[in-house]
Write a structure and sequence with these properties.
Keywords: Hydrolase, Membrane, Transmembrane, Transmembrane helix. Helices cover about 35% and strands about 20% of the residues. By secondary structure, the protein is of the alpha/beta class. The protein folds into 2 domains: about 10-35; about 40-280, Alpha/Beta hydrolase fold, catalytic domain (Rossmann fold, 3-Layer(aba) Sandwich), CATH 3.40.50.1820. An 8-stranded mixed β-sheet has the order 3-2-4-1-5-6-7-8, with helices on both faces. The longest helix is centred in the N-terminal third of the chain and has 30 residues, at about 5-35.
Length: about 280
């Protein structure tokens, strides 16, 4: 036989549940803030940009590592169609902390770096229209680095009203060419990081020596598996970024990765790279 519960008892139970939910929510919130307290809390979005033949899935390891330590509480995706049209997947809260935008180029075999840069401009336009961001950071891998550099060289100077670059992380960049594809044989760098032989796509970026913003901090990460390359890109090619930006940038740092996870396509799944990203972007 079931005992009939009075309205008063049901009401009291409901009040207890509501109060419990409020306290639980407050506990969870405070716990997350405590974990994230070692990091700066900003509203500057960080754009993750994948490489040639890849997708936003290559960015997941890094983003997951950031979420795990609660250095961000907002992640969305920017889908870029084969014609450059941008659609945002997900939504960021107004007070999102260190928001992340995972860019996905549906045409991941585009061979024009300038087109890649144009599509990055389209992403920034969409983000500004939607969220009114003032600044942005980038974390780019392989060809994704060219998208950033060509945006900065060919589109940023004409788009002063768009969010301004704040911090730039380059991973496995091939600014002076790719071994077996367009890199000059026997190439070297001088003391300033200038390549002895410059390929056309590098020469097109030389304007950055005059136009690169002075308030940008740059971290250049490259892999060395033991032969002064990451297996795909020779280290001199990655390090040639220095000549393009160091003269103007607020700061420029290089970080060499070694071991099996220093291989070109494994760098974006390297826990040491994750830690470098966290430290450079947000650590107090």
């Amino acid at each position: 036989m079931f005992t009939k519960i009075s309205k008063r008892t049901r009401f009291i139970c409901l009040i207890i549940l509501v109060i419990g939910a409020v306290f639980l929510g407050a506990y969870i919130h405070n716990y997350q803030v405590k974990i994230a307290s070692q990091y700066q809390q900003t509203n500057v979005p960080t754009l993750f940009i994948h490489g040639f033949g890849s997708s936003y899935h290559a960015e997941k390891h890094m983003v997951t590592a950031i979420k795990r330590v609660h250095a961000t509480n907002g992640v969305i995706r920017a889908e870029v169609s084969k014609t450059g049209r941008v659609t945002l997947v997900g939504h960021l809260r107004k007070n999102a902390v260190n928001p992340i935008v995972m860019i996905n180029y549906q045409n991941n075999h585009e061979r024009s770096y300038r087109t890649d840069g144009k599509w990055l401009r389209n992403v920034l336009q969409k983000l500004q229209q939607t969220y009114r961001f003032k600044k942005f950071n980038t974390v780019s891998h392989s060809v994704g680095n060219e998208a950033v550099m060509y945006y900065m060289a060919d589109f940023a100077p004409q788009n002063k009203g768009l969010p301004q670059l704040n911090k730039e992380i380059n991973i496995a960049g091939h600014f002076a060419g790719i071994r077996g594809y367009d890199a000059a044989k026997g190439n070297t760098l001088n003391a300033q990081g200038k390549p002895k032989h410059m390929i056309a796509t590098y020469r097109a970026l030389l304007k950055l020596r005059k136009t690169y913003p002075q308030n940008v901090a740059v971290l250049n990460i490259y892999g060395n598996i033991g032969d002064r390359s990451d297996g795909t890109v020779q280290n001199y090619s990655s390090k040639s970024l220095r000549y393009l930006v160091q003269k103007k940038a607020k700061s420029y740092q290089e970080l060499e990765m070694k071991g099996k996870l220093a291989q070109h396509s494994k760098l974006h799944s390297n826990p040491k790279v994750d830690q470098a990203i966290l430290k450079f972007l947000w650590e107090k």
